[in-house]
UniProtKB/TrEMBL annotation:
Protein's GO biological process: mannose metabolic process; oligosaccharide catabolic process
Keyword Ubl conjugation: no
Coiled-coil residue spans: none
One Pfam family per UniProt: Glyco_hydro_38C
Entry protein name: Alpha-mannosidase
Length: 788
């Protein structure tokens, strides 16, 4: 008899190798999960550079035969496969799976176009290679046919050489596996048990009795299994059942496990691919709901569900069915999971407005929880906006990414600028892509900052960022971890059930007032400024259009009907582009270009709407020689602006008079006339051409390369690099630029972060300051008094 004394390291590795998918699979237990396999009866393919519908692809006459080992691509190509399956008679009564690995994402369809399940290939912990054809093969139903849509990209795009690099446009994808196989559920269950026992051995404290009990139980199971004798499995299962049957005490912490598949609406892939990611992920989620009635799945982002409704209507109907059953749970209340800092306050309100309207219309409910697990900080405006929109709960985990200071709470009351407060929960596991591993369960408790204050914590499980969602293996692990001594309870739950418990314990919680600042990814405030500029222009244009049309409609409803649907469509496009990897500038170039094109279209359309409303209010101004221009101020306060008058230079010499505008408020330039106009709140100012007036602006070169500028307000001196050496307000003696110092200094810094190059600007960049220019003024011509 072998010694009962066990070396923990060697025993643990023995168990791990016994269930390894890589090592010794010809003699270990993992290699027996699929004891028999058979090639597909036939496999044919049709490829296209476009993303086409099932109807179009299924009717193509030009499919060609293919097989395992063939390569497909390049990146973003779509390949449609027809597969024919004939299950052998000897497999009757056995569970049969399709096994598929195309090193890419794929979606399985029935022959009538019903999306069944997503398939994720490649070597990754997020793989999903199998689909259950039948749980018990029957002699009356052994022939099957399917379609598979293969997207030539990985779950995380096609970046090379790193994940966040630009996509490799020439990348090819190999069909590594395409067959059917008998699935041994009992073997797979024991593999899961041994994996969990090994994880408990490793993750529980070194001096934990339960850790050693797990090790000895696992070792005993390995000893009693003969991989070539299925009758040995019963004794092994009995050992596992005894161990996992030992329950917790009443005081044990409870983990609310909630399925999700956080899908970035664009990131390392464009919007068009996200639409297919949604179909793959949601179809997989619904299939699990059929098998596991207790399984729940939380889904945010109304935009993604709207896409599914439009492109996959039968799938959307099934989503609505499971939503009524309480398994598919809409959360978040927003149009997308937007950036939490860059959108305007009005945009943040519209995110909730259109999100809540969609969820109420399609699912009969408004969301109570703001669900934003992955953005780069959270504005102090949000609690007030959330409360106004009927949302009183908030979930994230992103502040766990802080570079310097650990955020002090996982459960707290978050207070906004006006005193509004919401109940906040940060998942202590610090992820939204958990796999229900023992390490995640242990971390949820050991990392919890509010020990003794709360009895429950959330664990969000399911592959995320690129989608995918929960797997059957995760749910098997949850079943074993539901109530086992040595670990917190892990129960399948819902957001509402969790927050209801947290609300009952909220008297114990601390308060946090103001912004939730992320100490990382600060370059997202400036990266790809054009995207941010277009967003702000769209926000302003939409606000102006709504104000102008409201006035026009109020004055003449028959002449100027309010274009509500068009404006809502424009708003939804802008809200889409506020997604937390698009507006910050952290997506690939293709996604960024898509967003900029969409916003440019919005600006054009909104401009047309505003022009139409203004014409109805003031008439047309087609004739430049009419001499009248109207400047409309849509803001609720008086506004002073410098505007450029769109008259040609010949006209400028004839007239430049503005009703109610001071003579010194105009200046002629090479590009036109700049005019200073003050318009009343929510009003307008008329420009009429009658006569010209002079404005004095002084420009003097006091020394080679040194310029003195003066108008009626200020006087400044600039050197040859356009740096300001002196600035004074006329009528006063105070010098605003300190002696021996310069203002308006243009400098550059090295910008090389640790990894996230589009996201981060590190503090050490301040040590690399260099002048950006040496000299910009080389030959200065001037006049002492220049008049316009």
């Amino acid at each position: 008899m072998a010694s009962l004394f066990k070396n923990k390291r060697s025993t643990l590795e023995r168990v791990e190798k016994f269930v390894s998918p890589v090592y010794f699979t010809d003699v270990n237990l993992y290699g027996k999960i699929y004891p028999e396999a058979k090639d597909l009866t036939s496999l044919s393919v049709w490829s296209t550079p476009d993303r086409v519908s099932f109807d179009e692809a299924s009717k193509r006459p030009d499919y060609v035969s293919t097989g395992v080992g063939a390569q497909f691509g390049p990146t973003w190509t779509t390949c449609w496969f027809k597969i024919v399956i004939d299950i052998p008679n000897k497999w009757c009564g056995k569970e049969v799976h399709l096994r598929w690995d195309s090193e890419s994402e794929a979606l399985l369809f029935t022959t009538d176009g019903k999306p069944l399940q997503g398939l994720s290939g490649g070597v990754s912990h997020q793989e999903r290679h199998t689909f259950t054809i039948t749980p018990s093969a029957s002699v009356s139903c052994l022939h099957y046919e399917f379609f598979i849509e293969m997207a030539c990209s990985h779950l995380f795009g096609a970046g090379s050489p790193t994940m966040i690099s630009a996509p490799d446009p020439k990348k090819m994808f190999t069909l590594k596996k395409a067959d059917i196989a008998v699935y041994d559920k009992e073997v797979d269950a024991l593999v899961t048990d041994l994996q969990l026992l090994a994880e408990m051995t490793r993750e529980l404290p070194k001096d934990s009795i339960r850790s050693y009990e797990a090790m000895y139980a696992a070792n005993e199971i390995v000893n009693c299994i003969d991989v070539n004798d299925r009758s040995s499995l019963k004794a092994a299962k009995d050992i596992a059942d005894r161990f996992f049957g030992q329950r917790n005490g009443e005081s044990q912490h409870t983990i609310a496990a909630i399925g999700n598949c956080h899908i970035d609406t664009a990131w390392l892939w464009p919007y068009a691919e996200t639409k297919r990611k949604c179909a793959r992920s949601f179809a997989s989620a619904l299939l699990l709901m059929e098998k596991f009635p207790e399984y729940t799945f939380a889904c945010s982002q109304a935009q993604q569900l709207s896409w599914v409704k439009e492109s996959y209507p039968s799938l959307f109907e099934r989503i609505q069915h499971y939503a009524k059953k309480g398994q598919f749970i809409p959360v978040g209340g927003t149009w997308v999971e937007m950036d939490g800092n860059l959108p305007s306050g009005e945009s943040l309100v519209r995110q909730f407005l259109y999100g809540q309207l969609f969820f109420e219309k399609e699912f009969g409910t408004r969301c109570k929880e703001f669900w934003l697990p992955d953005t780069f900080g959270y504005s102090a405006q949000l609690p007030q906006i959330m409360r106004i929109c009927g949302v009183s709960r908030f979930l994230t985990q992103k502040l766990s990414w802080n570079l310097v200071n650990k955020f002090p709470h996982h459960n707290f009351v978050w207070e906004g600028l006006d005193g509004s407060n919401v109940l906040a929960h940060f998942a202590p596991s610090e992820t939204y892509g958990a796999e229900l591993r023992v390490a995640e369960v242990v971390k949820t408790v050991t990392n919890l900052e509010d020990k003794g204050r709360v009895s429950h914590s959330i664990l969000l499980f399911g592959h995320g960022d690129g989608g995918g969602g929960p797997t059957e293996a995760m749910l098997r692990r949850q079943s074993r971890l539901q109530d086992v001594s040595g670990l917190p309870r892990v129960t399948l739950s819902t957001p509402d059930a969790f927050f209801s418990v947290l609300e009952s314990e909220s008297r114990n919680l601390c308060h946090w007032s103001g912004e939730l600042f992320l100490e990382l990814h600060n370059a997202t405030y400036t990266t790809h400024a054009r995207t941010k500029q277009l967003n702000r222009m769209c926000e302003q244009a939409l606000r102006d259009a709504e104000m102008i049309y409201s006035v026009a409609f109020a004055l003449a409803p028959d002449v100027a009907p309010y274009p509500g649907e068009e404006l809502q469509g424009c708003w939804k496009d802008v809200l889409l582009n506020q997604f937390h990897d698009v507006l910050p500038g952290t997506c690939i170039a293709q996604a960024r270009e898509d967003a900029q094109a969409i916003n440019a279209q919005v600006l054009n359309r909104v401009g047309q709407l505003s022009d139409g409303a203004l014409e109805k209010l003031f008439g047309t101004c087609d004739d430049q020689n009419s001499g009248d221009l109207v400047f409309v101020n849509t803001l609720p306060w008086s506004r002073s602006e410098i505007v450029s008058v769109p008259w040609n230079r010949e006209e400028l010499s004839k007239r430049c008079w503005i009703e109610g505008v001071d003579d010194n408020a105009m200046q002629k330039t090479e590009c036109g006339t700049l005019v200073s106009i003050v318009a009343p709140s929510a009003g307008y100012k008329v420009l009429r051409g009658i006569s010209s007036h002079k404005v004095s602006v002084l420009a003097v070169e006091t020394a080679p390369g040194v310029i003195r500028l003066r108008n009626q307000f200020v006087e400044a001196k600039l050197n040859s690099s356009c740096e300001v050496s002196s600035l004074k307000i006329l009528g006063g003696s105070k010098e605003l630029v300190a002696a021996d110092r310069l203002a308006n200094v243009f400098v550059i810094f090295d910008d090389i972060p640790l990894y996230w190059d589009a996201w981060d600007v590190m503090d050490y960049h301040l040590e690399t300051r260099k002048p950006a220019v040496k000299q910009v003024v080389f030959d200065c011509s001037y006049v002492s008094e220049r008049h316009s």
